[in-house]
Amino acid sequence: MCTLEKRGDIFYLTLTGSDEHRLSPALIASILSALSEAASQSTRGSVLVTTSAGKFFSNGFDLGWAQSAGSPAEAQRRLHQMVEEFMPVVAALISLPMPTIAAVQGHAAAAGLMLALSHDYVVMRSDRGVLYMSEVDIGLSLPGYFGAVVRAKVGSPAARREVLLRGRKVRGEEAVAMEIVEGAHDGEEGVAGASARLAEELAGRRWDGAVYAEIRKGLYPELCGVLGLTTKVIATPRI
After folding, report:
1. In which band, very low, low, confident or very high, does the pLDDT at 54 lie, cut at 50, 70 and 90?
2. How far is it, in rounded angstroms, from Cα 103 to Cα 197?
3. DSSP H/E element including 205
4. How far is it, in rounded angstroms, from Cα 196 to Cα 54?
5. Nearest-angstrom CA–CA distance, 213 and 209
6. Name one GO biological process term (predicted).
7. Taking the model in full, what pTM does it have?
8. Share of the chain above pLDDT 90, in %
9. Alpha-carbon span 7 to 171, nearest angstrom
């Protein structure tokens, strides 16, 4: 499933195992539990890094589990269940009281890409792995909050068109040029090192997590509206 480890100020949430990290109800629940634990333990200067083991960051929802249901109606119900249960994960990341970094060591597809984009920063490999929204190719429409995530996190209309309407498989340097990710680095060590350096830099600012979360939510009003998140005023300045 996933593990959560704290090293100093930095939480490391790791999708474990060597498979595709398909977002089944069990894995979704495990991620949500880890995010809740990180939020409850956050202090000034906390940072979250989400990464994975193996070839994939996440290959999206567990469509195999849905299709094994035995009937088209039950398969549809299971798919809808995963869509509904994943939305709180996105909401938790958008409201998490600390900066967040997705260290994408491999492929991030469909809901797996949504998981990555729900972080403040994304770093990925330049030598392996792609970002890919497969829905147009496999015949699935987008959940409303998926579109809201992409509009919030991918600034260029041309880039959004390439990702969503052409199903383009975007590699590291392309993703940097399209301003989808923060940086592309060689190998697992390159990604791990870049994400750790960024995390240390952010942790060193010693920001108040609650204030950080409210500023983040204010940056994405449409997405927060879709997710049902509200904002509040915090006025405790540190001079």
Report:
1. confident
2. 12
3. none
4. 19
5. 6
6. fatty acid beta-oxidation
7. 0.96
8. 91
9. 30
Residue at token pair 């333990």 = 41
Strand residues in the chain grouped as ranges (E): 2-7, 10-15, 47-52, 56-58, 100-104, 107-109, 121-125, 131-132, 183-185
Q: Which amino acid is at 107?
A: H
Between CA 23 and CA 227 the distance in angstroms is: 19
- Is pLDDT above 90 for 234? no
**Beta bridge partner(s), residue 102:** 50, 122
Q: What is the number of other CB atoms lying within 10 angstroms of the CB of residue 114?
A: 27
- Is the model's pLDDT at 238 over the cut of 70? no
Residues 6+ apart with CB under 8 A from 84: none
In the chain the domains, ranked by start, together with CATH numbers, are 2-227 (3.90.226.10)
For residue 129, the model assigns a pLDDT of 85
Q: Cα 189 to the chain's mean position, in Å?
A: 20
Q: Is 167 helix (H, G, I), strand (E, B) or coil?
A: coil
Burial class of residue 199 (count of CB atoms within 10 Å of its CB; 0-12, 13-18, 19+)? buried
How many helices (H) and strands (E) in the chain? 11, 9
- pLDDT in the model for residue 239: 58
Q: Residues 48, 100: contact at Cβ < 8 Å? A: yes
